[in-house]
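step 4 of 6: structure.
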Amino acid sequence: MAKKILLVDDEPHIITMLENRMKHAGYEVITACDGQDALTKAQKEKPDLIILDLMLPKLDGYKVCRMLKFDEKYKHIPIIMLSARAQEADKKMGETVGADGFVTKPFEPQVLLGKIKDLLKQ
Amino acid sequence: MTVKTSKDQRLLTFIEKNHDGIVIVDKSGLVLFVNFAAARLFNRKKKELCGKPFAFPLPGDKAVEINIPGINQEFSIAQMQQMPIEWQARQAFALLIHDISELKKTEMLKSAMDERRRIDRIKNEFISNVSHELRTPLTSVREGISQILEGFLGKTTQKQKEFLSMCLEDIDRLSRIIDGLLDISRIESGKIILKKETLDIVDLARSTVSSLSVKIKNKGLELIEEYPKEKTEIYVDKDRIIEVFINLLGNAIKFTEKGHIGISIKNKAKLVECCVTDTGRGIAKKDLPRVFSRFQQFGRVFGPGEKGTGLGLSIVKSIIELHKGQIRVESKLNKGSKFIFTLFKYTSRELFRQYIVDGLREAVHNDEPLSIFVFYIEDFELVKKEFDSKKIAGLMNKFYEIVGGHLRRQADLAVKDDRAILLVLPVTKNEYIESIQMRLTQALEEYLSKEGLDKKIRIGAKTAGFPRDGSSADGLFDKIKDAIS
């Protein structure tokens, strides 16, 4: 069965393109465009992996990540932060809230796909 | 009567010797008396002031601030208050003048520092926002082109593929330019705090070269490496120095079609000299002065391959200068180029001091405390006579292990020389210094007694804390320096 990926970004163009890429790679994709939506869908749909933008309306990516990682029921879901904020401090913050990976935008497709594959294997 | 005189006398002495300026004026504002402090404050002799109208209007009921002109167009600032008194049986006013110049100066300094911090913060936020705003649209452009190229959206012709590939290359270049600009802007705003550590620069050079060796081989170039045999330790930010090597070697590879790429490291008395040489196209004499300036690209390569950003060498220079080193270039057109940079080696005393300077800077920046310890072998000269240097070195390694085992946070660090270990603990509160010192001394002594050395070798310890022992690096270093050879 295809693995399910939850894609969270507030940029519709990025959602459209990433969704296309993920489907091509054989994944099932669900999407969310703000932090609140992301949290609800993560809890309801139980995806196998989450790709999470940081600067999100309503609830930022850090908070979404922390809330999921502090919840026994969801903390096993790997989270890749995909952000245009690439400063050291941003990455550190990602680690602090328990993200499993950090990829900066613009990203190399192979890097992102490789990371997804690795995390799904574990 | 005698009693009264002596009381008057005492009062007059009190007024005369008061640290604050005291001026007595009559009701019309004529000066009747000036004490020593007031005369000094006004920078006049007493008799120049007495019997003349007072230079400032009387303050009335409330205290006022006055600016007193001094030498060199500087002003003293004082607070002045008036009090009705009886002076030699007449109604008069005593003016109490309190010098607040220093206070004002400190206030101004503090507000200037606050302002700088505020600007730094705004600048950093701005940079980070601009970066975000530029990268986000770049992401969908890159991803869209990438997917067309990969054929997700149908067949493309060879010509279309070619053009799209060029777009992709330039998108990547644009994103490198954004990274470079961010880098420069952070270096210039002093935002970059070097994360320095002591390391062997030869190891660093070797591993950087090996990451590029495929590129060198693919171009059919020879690689010539020349390193000193001995360990060449320097105190630098590892990632930044790797960036320097990658930049210089990358340029050398890019601009060289035949011949060799060379890297050499020389271990000199006080510094380490690194050279990156090539037999490439070189730089014209007229262009040499601008090599390290921004957006200067000479001899652009036409055809395929990664294009430069015009920022690399400018960043390299900034990094070397941040390390208090120097960089220069020698080059001949069509013969090749040689980039030479030097970095200081520190004696252990300088190194320990530098660790304290760096630790303190970060602590002040983050508004956090800093706790510093030195553990050392007492009477080291005697110990050296009794044990051979290998034995002592082994012991120091063991001590270092023990002390290092007590590091808690990532930013905690320990360094050692032949007789002492410096421990710098950011964030750790000063009130814990004594207990940490005791615990660690005890751990070291326990090891000594286990080895049966406790009669022959004693451990000393010195500590310093920010803010407990002051806020200057020199002050903190003074507290521990006797422990260092």
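step 5 of 6: annotate
 - Chain B touches chain A at residues 128, 131-132, 134-144, 146-147, 150, 152, 171-172, 175, 179, 182 (CB under 8 Å).
 - Chain B is about 45% helix and 25% strand.
step 6 of 6: archive
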